[in-house]
Amino acid sequence: MNVRTIREDRSAKELVHRMRKYRVDVCRIQEHRRVHTDDMRETVVTKMIEDYYLVTTSAWRNEAQAATGGVGLMLSRDAQKTLISVTRSSDRVITASFKGNPVLTTIVAYAPTLQAQQDEKVAFYNALRQAVEAVPQHHFLAILGDFNARLGLGDAPFTYHQVANDNGKRLIELIEDYSLLANNTQFEKRKGRLWTWLSPSGSKAQIDFILTRRKWRNSVLDSCAHNTFSTVGSDHRVVVTKVRLSLRSPRKAATGRVQYDWGKPQGDSNLQVRYAIEVHNRFQVLAEYEESANCRYGKFIEANKEAAEICMDKVPRVKKWAKASRVPRVVIAREEMQVAYNSLVANYSCNKQEQYASKKKALAETYDLIEEEVLFQKISEVEQAHVNQKHAVSWKLINEITGKKTSKPSQIKGDTDEQRVDAWYRHFKNLLGDAPAVLEAQEEVAQVFIDLDIEDSPFSQEEYAKALSSLKSGKACGEDGVVPEVLKHVPINDIMLDFINCAYEKGEAPDQWSTINIIPVPKSGDLTCTDNYRGISLTSFVSKTFNRMLLNRIRPVLRCSAEVNGGAHHRAEENR
Question: What mean pLDDT comes out for the span 367-389?
């Protein structure tokens, strides 16, 4: 569908509303008029519009510096899960592939107008031909575009026009060269279901087409134009093709870690005791002293998880603001615009054109008013959160209002999930580097300090408490799921100290301590490329506490020895 601008989010939200209402999972769009920043000019950008994904290539600016053009897709969550890849061929051509049987590959195209220069038309069709040739024959190919082309009666079975124009002749060459069919000219329909564009003068034309390969013609069930998306505000109608395919949505992934309100144990002594009792009771039943450190620590992880489920409250869901497209005032304005559009299409006149333009403006103003009201409500909540000293909540709202620190939805390049996982592995392996090569493994390392007075007895409760004081609350935990708030405020020191002393005296540290979760964090640039991500390593807080206890024993002695040796060296220099 040529949307004739969704540069403003309100227009994009209206498109999402129509897709949701008519259960459309994928909408290919032309002329969205969203211009990307200079660093993203040649890349595909993804943005969340409510709960849909808007994937776009950049529009461009004409001689008057007005935004024009741009192609893309609007995807539901289900459709995004089946997305394999998105490739930009040019400003006017984009290719997207979806998992299925067969694989569904769609090309979204926006052709130059009839008055455009010949070189511009040639460049467009060259890019489109290259995109078509890159699609394997066993894929179901669908080319959806505003071709600005008219086909005549001799070119297709059922057309709106009698004679093809220059753009139509170019489109016919493409259809013949690649054995394609224009689906919305293959089914006998009344004239009202054929035209796709209403000109400012009131004339109608069929210039938008959906093309598929001739070999798949039996899979195409129907194709025609509809008025159902008229409230988006475009002078083009949506063209819908029904096909019989089987898209393969991936199996539902396991749910992530449950988020609990870990701030409560800090000031609730009863909760601290109850949590500790639950952990002790479950750990004593599960663990056996003769087991390996890995097994025993695994039983502790399980006991801690069960105690959290019983004692802790889950973090309340973030308040979801009402979708502007569903607010009653917007619904009324939309219905009025739909009535005006139907009247205009049925019997075109200048007066009805003005009425339609007025209703279209009224719908846009209603969207803006709703957004303004939501903004003021968010600002009020920021002020209230500040008064209640809930600074994390206030900053989250501030970032939401300003659009800062919001993750950009994207998917790295790869045809399968396995390929993407492998790409992440290779990326972070290259960042971390290989282990250093040891030429002489038996080479002795000379001691710098000899006979240092470092305590080597088992760690005490005081040392453990001192190490815990350096832990910061509110930090993400490692693979074991043990958060710093549990270590600092829940009295399970005996269990933790037993694990630490076992690792210190016997060298039996659980493998879970050395397991690191690497979280990719996007930087700037093309977010489909792993090179534009850095990693954050999440390790076990118990392991960090053990390391801190070792450091607390070693550091004071080394510092003292360094000061003594430094003073002796200084005196020797003076004697010289």
Answer: 88
Contact between residue 459 and residue 500 where contact means Cβ atoms under 8 Å apart: yes
Query: What is the rounded average pLDDT of the residues 296-308?
Result: 91
**Residue bearing the bigger pLDDT, 568 or 159:** 159
Query: In this structure, are residues 180 and 211 in contact, taking their beta carbons and an 8 Å threshold?
Result: yes
454 falls in which pLDDT band (50, 70, 90)? Answer: confident
Residues 418 and 375 in one domain: no
Q: Residue 264 has what pLDDT? A: 85
Q: What would the mean pLDDT of 454-476 be, rounded to a whole number?
A: 89
Q: In this predicted structure, what is the pLDDT of residue 406?
A: 57
Q: What is the pTM of this model?
A: 0.73
Number of domains in the chain: 3
Task: Tell whether 374 and 424 lie within a shared domain.
Answer: no
Determine the structural domain holding residue 450 and report its residue range.
413-435+443-565
Last residue of a domain, one of 243, 272, 290: 243
Distance CA 454, CA 203 (A): 92
* Dist. CA 354–CA 359, nearest whole Å: 9
Q: 332 and 239: one domain?
A: no
Question: Does some domain include residue 217?
Answer: yes
For residue 213, CA distances in Å to 325, 335, 382 come to 37, 38, 55
Both structure tokens of 420: 């993407």
Please report which helix (H) or strand (E) contains residue 46, including its range: strand 45-49
Structure letter (DSSP) for residue 198: E
93 contacts: CB under 8 Å, gap ≥ 6:
71, 107, 108, 109, 110, 124, 127, 128, 131
State the pLDDT at residue 566: 55
- What's the pLDDT at 14? 92
Residue finishing a domain among 217, 243, 269: 243
- One domain, residues 50 and 116: yes
Residues 207 and 150 in one domain: yes
CB neighbour list of residue 131: distance below 8 Å, 6 or more residues apart: 87, 89, 93, 95, 107
Residues 70, 160 within the same domain? yes
Q: How far is CA 241 from CA 56, 187, 217, 557, in A?
A: 22, 11, 12, 78
Residue 255 binned pLDDT confidence (cut-offs 50, 70, 90): low
Contacts of 560-563 spanning 24+ positions with Cβ under 8 A: 561/449, 561/452
The reply to whether 504 and 378 lie within a common domain is no
